[in-house]
Design a protein that fits this description.
Chain lengths: 237, 112
Amino acid sequence: MATLRVSVWRGQESGRFQEFEVPRQESQSVLDVVTHIQRALDPTLAYRFSCRVGMCGSCAMTVNGRARWTCRTHVDKVAVDGRLEIAPLSNLPVVKDLVTDMTLFFDKWARARGRFRGARTRRDDFERVPPDSAARRLADAAIECIGCGVCYSACDVVAWNPDYLGPAALNRAWTLVNDARDTDNRARLAAVAGDAGCHACHTHMSCSERCPKQLSPTASIAGLKRATALAALKGEF
Amino acid sequence: MNVRTQVLLWAAQRVSAAVLAVCVLVHLVTIIYAVRNGLSAAEILGRTRGNAAWAAFYVLFVAAVAVHAPIGLRSALAESFNWRGRGLDIAVLALAVALAVLGLRAVYAVFT
Ligand code: SF4
Ligand code: SF4
Ligand code: FES
């Protein structure tokens, strides 16, 4: 049976790659490979996954140098000469092996005021948002984020500027800026502006290139740049 | 530096970039035109001396450079050398002033 030679990161920030041989299978995902190693070869390997169908965003790793969701990445697509190198996501602290600490990543969503805040209560009627309104379409284009951290790991500006909120948090903020029901936009625009916010983005587009959901955080960030510049000129913050 | 100022710097960077795009083009075309039969100080001064339109153009050019370069350098230094805060802001402000003074002095020199 054909085998894959797999180097897997072991340790924390400092550590080393460990080699494994894994039987090749049809339609095998990178997550299948990691799972095989953990179940059959070395039960001490730490990694994270949940849904296995591309919904939860917990399985992202660096595969042959690129951040990817591993449950929906076929080995066929990424193995080079029967070899895989699997490492934790970059730009995040490593807890152990393939598991990163996502705390800062999600704290930045909170800092970008990525939480919906409406004015209505359960006693009010529903707000009607026309599905084809311009704002609703902009929100739709960015809404399917699964919080996998691939974009965050792929962004050079995150590496150069540790305070930078990053593509995912800014993309989330943009969906709320376009949410007709949300009442927190003034504070949100102030929170996402400036050197640690959308204006730090260099439009490299690595985030949009790598996002497994084919979102374009770059486009969302461009929208935020315009909206915040307008708000700043009007003196709203 | 407060967030509003950071955003205004970003906007100034964009606007000055647009101005520079036009200025650099005009400047390059002028150079190519000016050197067509060799280059002499007399020819340059003949074109610029007392010419308010050229002076105004180059004042705009200098202003755009003095705005654009320091803001860009501010990001580059922050990202490459992790230099941030007041010291950096003062340094790039000093660069802006230096660029403006040197540039305007040159414009003045070929105008009078
Ligand atoms: S477009 Fe902006 S957010 Fe996306 S990778 Fe580039 S710098 Fe980062
Ligand atoms: S924007 Fe894309 S890459 Fe970034 S966290 Fe969301 S789904 Fe993942
Ligand atoms: S395991 Fe849920 S997205 Fe991969």
